Amino acid sequence: MKFVSAKGMVEAAKKSGYAIPALNANGATYDIARAALEAAQELNSPLILQAYEPNLEYRGFNYFCKLAGILADELDITVPVALQVDHGHSFESAIKAMNAGFTSFMFDASHDPLEENIAKTQKVVEVAKILGVSIEAEVGYVKGNEPSKEKKIGRIPVAEKPEIPPAKTDIEEAKRFVAAVDVDMLAVSVGTTHGVYQYQTEIDFDLLTKIRREIDVPLVQHGTCGISMDDVTKLVKHGMNKVNFGEAFRFNYIKYFNELTDSIEHLWHAWRIMREVKNLIKEDMKEIIRALGSEGKAS
Which of 160, 178, 181 is nearest to 169 (CA)? Predict the structure, then answer.
């Protein structure tokens, strides 16, 4: 299968009022990647299959692309699929990803001052344009990915909601950024936080509406764990064109495995447990696809 740039997907979504599911495979985890591809194929939805850059430390950039290619061929995937690195933080990692076969890259310098963000992102964009790779950037740092100062061992309780106040994108900064850099997608912060939470309800839909009015570039939502499906749909209606999901998958991956280990016949065959984990995660992903309105939009 030939993977495609995400540019055409998000532009079509913006034009027609739906959003592309960007599903994170937790560093090329077979079962999560397979669940995403099967869910997209069964619901005829375009798909961005993602890997968060730090999660690729274990399996690597090349493995992710080869795994996706093998799965897509074996499953006879016909819907358009883009492969994207999520939260890449260096020019070197962007080049490495493009060489490995990623067709989209999120370059995240949102933690830097705006002018540095512009300069660093522009350098990546110049190479990506030559190679036909789409680029996502971020203005208005979405918090929650900061390294923890303390170890959290074992099955830690899921936080009810984020404890830190979310950052929010400054509209004038976003306008300056897209005027200076020709990115294909722009991630903005409208009140959510990265992490695993029971719920997130502080989304600033008014801010999103204003950003959508001022910014013509397809918009991206990060930090979705705990957002209700009703609010996911509301985000799309207010202007989001790509919505990232990942934390809930990694949480449910462990949760489902623990539950199924004690509830199905597996006779110590791990693949039997993982097949059922995949099926459960696939149903979670189908719910997301429907909430985004991308079902049936692959053709």
Answer: 178
